[in-house]
């Protein structure tokens, strides 16, 4: 009886020729062992630190930093920097930042400042990634030294690049809180200090609330906790309800709608089907280009750096509505 299955003889011999060519045999699969790096493989190097290769030193430094052994980490990072070519600026900047943070963790703020300034001096004046890292590091170092004015000035430069990061606004608000016993000469905060402080924390709260529905997994708990902390901070100012509403309105105005200020470059362009034109992306890429162009003429070198002028410009950009 013909079944019409069209079977070949090889189909009844366990494994077809095709299978033997394209699959791994059982013996081969059983003998295969994946290569694995033992834990802390880089820590097995014998001999003095000067004889170890750069890669091993870098792994040792990062491991020591992870384990909060900042003295050991500093020693390794310093050795890696010595061996890194001056042409390899990316790696050198990484080492400078690491050295500054190690010194900061050891409460050696003067040494941390030296490395942070050296890092900042290597930042390209219109590379916003370079400037973000160096200004952020400098703000933390000055904050550790108790210099709230310098810390605020560097944070205000970051806000100009990243206006939608809640952590930066929280830190700016804390800088203004630290000014409570100081006579200020800034254009707006000198007579509206409480409102300026509250605005910064409200701004941070609004930014966290705006992303709450999209936050998942491990980020959800910090978002909720952060909102609770900010709410308590805002309540401590005992604002009048109308005043609180006004601050909330201006703190969220550019979040709900693209800022009209041309220098922010945040305006989005939508495709116009009626015009028959192709879609043009005028979003982040155009905003970044505008910022980079603007930063070409911004004095960030120490010779031209004036924290009071930087803060004054920041206040006029964000708090002007308080005096209008």
Q: Could you explain the architecture of this structure?
A:
The protein has 324 residues and is an all-alpha fold. The chain has a domain at 165-258 and 281-324. Helices cover 59% and strands 0% of the residues. The protein has 14 helices and no strands. It has helices spanning 17-22, 26-31, 54-66, 70-83, 89-105, 109-121, 128-144, 148-161, 166-177, 189-210, 220-235, 241-256, 284-295, 307-318. Helix 4 (70-83) packs antiparallel against helix 5 (89-105). It starts with 16 loop residues before the first helix and ends in a 6-residue tail after the last helix. The relative contact order is 0.07. Residues 258-282 have low confidence and may be disordered.
Write a compact overview of the structure shown:
With 324 residues, this protein is mainly α. It is built from 14 helices and no strands.
Number of strands: 0
Number of helices: 14
Roughly how many Å is the radius of gyration?
A: 28 Å
The percentage of residues in β strands lies in under 5%
Give the H and E element order: HHHHHHHHHHHHHH
Principal-axes geometry comes out as globular
Major sheet attributes: none
Query: Which runs of at least 5 residues are low in confidence (pLDDT < 50)?
Result: 258-282
Structural class: mainly alpha
- Beginning-to-end CA distance, first to last residue: 99 Å
Instruction: Provide the residue-averaged pLDDT.
Output: 82
> Helix content range of the residues, please?
55-70%
């Amino acid at each position: 009886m013909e079944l019409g299955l069209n079977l070949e003889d090889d189909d009844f011999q366990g494994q077809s020729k095709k299978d033997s060519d394209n699959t791994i045999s059982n013996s081969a699969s059983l003998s295969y062992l994946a290569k694995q790096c033992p834990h802390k493989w880089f820590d097995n190097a014998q001999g003095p630190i000067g004889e170890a290769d750069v890669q091993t030193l870098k792994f040792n430094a990062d491991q020591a930093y992870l384990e909060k052994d900042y003295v050991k980490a500093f020693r390794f990072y310093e050795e890696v920097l010595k061996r890194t070519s001056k042409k390899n600026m990316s790696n050198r900047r990484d080492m400078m930042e690491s050295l500054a943070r190690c010194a900061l963790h050891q409460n050696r703020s003067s040494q941390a400042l030296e490395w942070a300034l050296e890092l900042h001096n290597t930042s390209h004046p219109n590379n916003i990634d370079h400037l973000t890292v160096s200004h952020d590091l400098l703000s933390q170092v000055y904050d550790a030294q108790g210099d709230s004015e310098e810390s605020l000035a560097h944070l205000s430069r970051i806000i100009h690049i990243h206006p939608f990061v809640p952590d930066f606004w929280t830190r700016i608000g804390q800088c203004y809180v630290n000014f409570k016993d100081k006579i200020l000469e800034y254009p707006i905060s000198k007579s509206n200090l409480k409102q300026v402080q509250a605005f910064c924390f409200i701004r941070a709260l609004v930014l966290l609330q705006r992303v709450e529905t999209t936050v998942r997994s491990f980020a959800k708990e910090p978002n909720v906790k952060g909102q609770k902390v900010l709410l308590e901070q805002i309540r401590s100012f005992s604002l009048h309800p109308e005043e609180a509403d006004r601050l909330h309105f201006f703190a969220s105005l550019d979040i709900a709608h693209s800022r009209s200020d041309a220098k922010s470059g945040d305006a989005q362009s939508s495709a116009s089907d009626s015009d028959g034109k192709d879609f043009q992306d005028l979003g982040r890429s155009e905003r970044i280009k505008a910022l980079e162009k603007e930063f070409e003429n911004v004095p960030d070198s120490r010779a031209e750096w004036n924290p009071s002028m930087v803060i004054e410009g920041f206040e006029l950009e964000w708090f002007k509505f308080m005096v209008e």
